[in-house]
Design brief:
Layout lengths: L4 E8 L9 E8 L6 H12 L18 E4 L2 E4 L13 E4 L6 E3 L2 E2 L2 H9 L21 H8 L9 H5 L1 H5 L6 H11 L9 H4 L13 H5 L6 H17 L6
Parallel strand pairs: 1-5
Antiparallel strand pairs: 1-2, 3-4, 3-5, 6-7
Helix pairs in contact: 2-6, 6-9
Bound molecules: iron/sulfur cluster (SF4) and FE2/S2 (inorganic) cluster.
């Protein structure tokens, strides 16, 4: 019996060779336990070794395999080929980011945005690295735990219509990361200087697609709306925090 196959239509863009991305079809085995990432690995191993894409853990932890699959931002290691029936399955780079080659996008701007929110514990009168141990109750951990589950996969940016139109928008994951620290009982900052302006929380129009796209249930849309309340209070009561 011959093995069933499914067609992947993979966006190829080779700088210096292609004017613009083109979709190239590849037939790959349709196996029940194969994710889209397995199909891409098959292409690279058996059909065309020049195909470029990022991946590492193959288990939804590293966040590096995000791509656009049939128009939606997805982690390709957690998206099974069988979801797409008999196919074809279109695989493109994450929307909203410059393409370096094939399915690989430039993440520099995203990393700079994450760094800009001071993603570490800020303590008045103490300089990092902190050496003191600060106890925390389970309830205090619960206050920010959800926001600490982010794997930096950038799917929320790719799903966000504001970010796609305005690359200066600080964006969902960076704001959720800021809230991960703002809501930590050990932290003394509120990051208002970074979060409280129009390219940050006030740029969000609450479409909510970031939360729909997030594979780790971080709920960045909620993080943004919660901080809007903080920022509004901060404007009328400058001494208030969080
Ligand atoms: S908030 Fe969710 S979608 Fe956005 S980068 Fe983090 S894990 Fe990915
Ligand atoms: S390969 Fe690590 S999240 Fe998919």
């Amino acid at each position: 019996m011959t093995e069933e196959s499914i067609r992947l239509e993979v966006a190829r863009y080779r700088p210096g060779q292609d004017e613009e991305p083109v979709l190239v079809p590849y037939e790959v085995p349709l196996r029940p336990d194969w994710a889209v990432l397995d199909g891409l690995a098959y292409v690279k191993d058996r059909l065309d070794g020049t195909l470029s894409f990022r991946w590492s853990c193959r288990m939804g932890i590293c966040g590096s395999c995000g791509m656009t699959v049939n128009g939606e931002p997805r982690l390709t290691c957690g998206t099974f080929l069988t979801e797409y029936g008999t196919g074809p399955v279109r695989v493109e780079p994450l929307k909203g980011f410059p393409v370096i080659r094939d399915l690989v996008v430039d993440i520099e701007d995203f990393l700079a945005k994450l760094s800009s929110v001071r993603p570490w514990l800020v303590r008045e009168g103490e300089e990092p690295p902190l050496t003191t141990e600060y106890a925390q109750t389970p309830a205090q951990l619960d206050a920010y735990k959800q926001y600490s589950m982010c794997v930096n996969c950038m799917l929320c940016y790719s799903a966000c219509p504001v970010y796609v139109l305005d690359p200066d928008f600080l964006g969902p994951a960076a704001i959720a990361l800021a809230q991960r620290y703002n809501l930590d009982s050990r932290d003394m900052d509120d990051r208002f200087d970074v979060l409280g302006h129009e390219d940050a929380v006030w740029g969000c129009t609450f479409v909510g697609e970031c939360t729909n796209a997030c594979p780790k249930h971080v709920d960045p849309a909620e993080a943004i709306q919660r901080y809007k309340l903080t920022a509004a209070l901060r404007s009328v009561l400058p001494w208030s925090r969080r």
